Amino acid sequence: MIRGGRILLASVAICSTATRVSLKGRIAAVVAAAAIVVVPSAQAADSSCWDYRPAERGFARRINSERADRNLGKLKLDPELSKAARVHTNEMIRIDDLYHTPNSTLFPRITNWAFLGESVAVGANVESLHEDFMLSEDHAYNILWEQYRHVGVGTRHAYGRLWVTIIFEAGPNPGTTLNMPRCS
Length: 184
Fold this sequence. Notes:
A hairpin with a 2-residue loop joins β7 (150-158) and β8 (161-169). The radius of gyration is 15 Å and the shape is globular. The longest helix has 17 residues, at 79-95. It is of the alpha+beta class and 184 residues long. Helices cover 32% and strands 28% of the residues.
């Protein structure tokens, strides 16, 4: 269950270097070691039919605005990363708990990745959640890391709150093993 406050945040940056854990009040962040995986996407041809929700586009706009303010490259909103993010958001809502996608689940869902970062949150709206991300050193790092090229955002309103999973990726062409919508 989500307890107290208007938001509980968590962040993970998965990379090929160190592991660290820090707890700051109600904000937790973890950096975990991982291998580089390159697997072709089975769904790439269908990704053009993805329909973004307004809140998903809102997070992407705010992320890219923060990056533009610092002369960093714009992140491409990626439908396949967004599908994986939506799946995780729905999993959190199903059990009414905020948590990161376990590595054993995330790694098979995302293909063609070199570095992944994930931020999850629940709160009132895009504006307040984005502001909280930027006030957290670890979450701001995810948003502003120079190496990221793609972002996937999955949102859903449930229990009177907005739930979000944001997945960041540094490779040239991320994909997913999840089923993408078919173009008509």
